[in-house]
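Sample entry (224 residues):
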Amino acid sequence: MYPYSGMLEPLCFPSDSVNSAPYPFYDRWGDNWNVSAEMVILNQGRSLGTLAFLAAQTSLKTQPWRSVAGQIVVGSGAMAGQPVTLNLQAPGVDLSVARITWEVQNQDPTFGHSFTFLTTNTGSQWVQAEAQLPDGRRVFAVGSVMIGAANASVPKLSISSSGATLSWVSTGGGVYQISYKNNLTDPTWTSLSGNISATGTLTTWTDTSARSASRRFYRISRIQ
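Predicted structure, serialized as tokens:
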């Protein structure tokens, strides 16, 4: 390093001398060593040699191994706004004792035999999984999950002597308005209800003036 003076230090990320945000991202980091003097190189070499020696004293030294392609299995109900569960499978390999690392688009990496997450995005999202078995073998899988749009709840309309009652799935604290047309060919919608403040996940409102109309079309709008 000495022939390069301070040239290599700026290549490190994060810098050794940084005062804020000193920790690297999950998969983005850099470092450099003086391989002729730093003890970390010597210790790494000794550790690798020791592990290789210990492994050679067990039955693992004759264990045949061919890499097996893993497969990510998606549970039912891959819809936006609903939990999605992923599982990892590998033909002929027991993954029940493996440590599995999951990485999914827009999600933090995590460990677990399965991974359940909630997404609000639709479309294809990449997924990756790595299983590490107790004897050091690894299984990898890369794929994608197609997240579909959740089916929107359809408002309901009921007719009684009081008028036309509308009910719809709402968000507590949201403000809604109802407008109408007597014919779909009418050029504009006519405001009918004024502001309706939702207090829960289901809101109902009755149009008493509908008793005098032969037909009516309604539009429910959230304004706040």
